[in-house]
């Protein structure tokens, strides 16, 4: 690690051993350096961990609805076996269910969650045209967790309702032809795992194949292709900070190469938290027209924080696998709620049908225990089977209470036509960003419609050059290791950030989550960052004889 002669060492030599770590594993080392426990404890208020994306806000109304629905379902269960006082209940009964539910609502008028449930049933019946009785039965049986998920991919009416939510949030007013299927999964992480695995099992990607990644990107998308399980070649499509974290036309044109089998991206991006511009989405859709065999995966977990968001799934539905997680928007990381959606007429099923005969024979054998027509099994249903190693397909599916909460979250959003909840979250995270940047001394820019602001990324090269010139940046990188700044923040200010390099940024940077701390905490983080910058400017002046103004951060 190159240092100025005679200057004190600011980083332990052991830090050099962390270069290969995932940013989420490095986070634990930074927490230790900050004097915290490797097992994070929210009560440790003296340490400010802005490295993790877990929000400190959550949606209360659909949670109140969940618990009230649970009480009603328990009453229905006990009613079924009323002759057994030993704590034995039964399944709810369909006959008279809606009338008993109305009575329950009247008896509990004014209790939090009751008005939401009343509105939810009305919305399902009057707006979606579904049977209120069938909906209530599915929700009661689901919340009691008294049966396997049937169908295993997703409960029948739950899939319809979640589908409407995805249409509203991911497609919006964009023209969309056809229908799509949904697989309810254990969060976005499960979605990633299942998709990579089923693509491999069905020979849609194999060792030595080339895929493209939209960089920067959530770290697992970088790490999974390198594993021995996959051994994929990767082409990076780089979004640049100088271009407001958008992809240039030249970068997107890399997808025209027929060697590229698939393109994976996170939109809005992680960590820059910027949605892909309309022009770039249209360019990708045009490339798909020229390359109808190209598989796309868009992970749109942060799309619900954007204004008028439109997913790539809306523009190229037949080529796109849509991944969405409820974790961040509803503050539900512990619930593990996610979805995978595919158009019913998609390139995945077509490519499977075009596989060589010997491969199709192998796949026929793989799936023949679960269907009499394994060759016709859709990709999304192969996902379900593979998620339970095929042999346990009969017990596949997200737990039914999880699906119930997913449905209630979806209905809460569908019923919130003024977008009051969404607008409140946007105000919250943007006020935190403003506080952070004000304390650092960087001008706050809030006029880019593509900025989502769940995270912000502090690009040391871009910001340093803008504030102090290229000579300062080159001196800084010559005399420090990228991780040094993060470890110094942790040790000296007890502030934890994640390294942007772990997400594929081209320049050394730090990811700041704007979701998990209070506004005053972001001001404290901003002051700590400013103090560190000022010290490096003083060191630069002493080493070079220059007279940079350490207060000039902008």
From TrEMBL:
Cleavable signal peptide: none
Cofactor(s) demanded: pyridoxal 5'-phosphate
All copies of domain Aminotransferase class I/classII large, residue ranges: 187-525
Uppermost EC category: transferase
Taxonomy, superkingdom: Bacteria
Sample GO molecular function, one term: transaminase activity
Listed GO biological process terms: aspartate metabolic process
Pfam families, per the entry: Aminotran_1_2
Record keyword rRNA processing present: no
Gene3D superfamilies hit by this protein: 1.10.20.110, Aspartate Aminotransferase, domain 1 (3.90.1150.10), Type I PLP-dependent aspartate aminotransferase-like (Major domain) (3.40.640.10)
Enzyme Commission identifier(s): 2.6.1.-
TM stretches of this protein: none
Keyword Transferase applies: yes
UniProt keyword list: Aminotransferase, Pyridoxal phosphate, Transferase
NCBIfam families per record: asp_4_decarbox, PRK09275.1
Family named by the database record: Belongs to the class-I pyridoxal-phosphate-dependent aminotransferase family.
The name this protein goes by in its record: Aminotransferase
Source taxonomy: Bacteria, Pseudomonadati, Pseudomonadota, Betaproteobacteria, Burkholderiales
């Amino acid at each position: 690690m190159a240092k100025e002669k005679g200057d004190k060492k600011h980083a332990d030599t052991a830090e050099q051993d962390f270069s290969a770590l995932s940013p989420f594993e490095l986070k634990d080392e930074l927490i230790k350096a900050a004097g915290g426990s490797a097992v994070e404890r929210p009560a440790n208020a003296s340490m400010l961990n802005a490295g993790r994306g877990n929000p400190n806000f959550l949606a209360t109304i659909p949670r109140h609805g969940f618990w009230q629905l649970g009480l009603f379902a328990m009453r229905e269960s006990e009613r079924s076996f009323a002759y057994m006082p030993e704590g034995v209940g039964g399944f709810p009964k369909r006959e008279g269910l809606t009338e008993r539910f109305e009575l329950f609502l009247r008896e509990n008028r004014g209790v939090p969650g009751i008005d939401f449930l009343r509105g939810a049933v009305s919305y399902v019946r009057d707006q979606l045209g579904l049977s209120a009785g069938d909906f209530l039965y599915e929700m009661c049986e689901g919340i009691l967790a008294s049966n396997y998920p049937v169908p295993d991919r997703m409960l029948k009416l739950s899939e319809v309702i979640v589908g409407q939510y995805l249409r509203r949030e991911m497609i919006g007013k964009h023209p969309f032809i056809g229908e799509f299927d949904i697989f309810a999964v254990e969060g976005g992480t499960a979605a990633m795992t299942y998709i990579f695995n089923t693509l491999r099992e069905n020979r849609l990607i194999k060792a030595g194949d080339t895929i493209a990644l939209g960089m920067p990107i959530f770290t697992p998308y970088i790490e999974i292709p390198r594993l021995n399980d996959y051994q994929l070649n990767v082409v990076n499509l780089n979004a640049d900070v100088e271009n407001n974290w958008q992809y240039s036309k030249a970068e997107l044109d890399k997808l025209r190469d027929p060697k590229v089998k698939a393109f994976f991206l996170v939109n809005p991006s992680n960590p820059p938290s910027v949605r892909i511009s309309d022009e770039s989405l249209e360019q990708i859709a045009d490339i798909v027209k020229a390359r109808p065999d190209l598989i796309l995966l868009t992970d749109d977990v942060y799309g619900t924080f954007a204004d008028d968001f439109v997913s790539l799934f809306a523009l190229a539905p037949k080529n796109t696998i849509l991944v969405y997680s409820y974790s961040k928007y509803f503050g539900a990381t512990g619930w593990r709620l996610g979805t995978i959606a595919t158009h019913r007429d998609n390139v995945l099923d077509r490519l499977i049908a075009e596989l060589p005969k010997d491969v199709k024979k192998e796949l026929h054998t793989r799936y023949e225990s679960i269907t009499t027509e394994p060759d016709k099994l859709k990709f999304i249903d192969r996902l379900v089977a593979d998620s339970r190693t095929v042999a346990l397909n009969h017990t596949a599916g997200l737990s039914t209470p999880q699906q119930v909460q997913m449905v209630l979250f979806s209905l809460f959003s569908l019923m919130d036509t003024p977008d009051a909840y969404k607008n409140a979250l946007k105000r919250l995270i943007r006020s935190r960003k403003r506080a952070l940047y004000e304390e650092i001394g960087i001008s706050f820019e809030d006029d880019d419609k593509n900025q989502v602001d769940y995270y912000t990324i502090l690009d040391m090269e871009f910001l340093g050059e803008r504030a102090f010139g290229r000579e300062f940046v080159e001196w800084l990188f010559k005399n420090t290791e990228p991780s040094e700044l993060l470890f110094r923040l942790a040790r000296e200010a007890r502030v934890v950030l994640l390294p942007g390099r772990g997400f594929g940024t081209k320049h050394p940077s730090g990811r700041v989550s704007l979701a998990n701390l209070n506004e005053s905490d972001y001001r404290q983080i901003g002051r700590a960052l400013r103090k560190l910058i000022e010290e490096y400017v003083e060191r630069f002046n002493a080493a070079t004889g220059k007279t940079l103004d350490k207060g000039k951060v902008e």
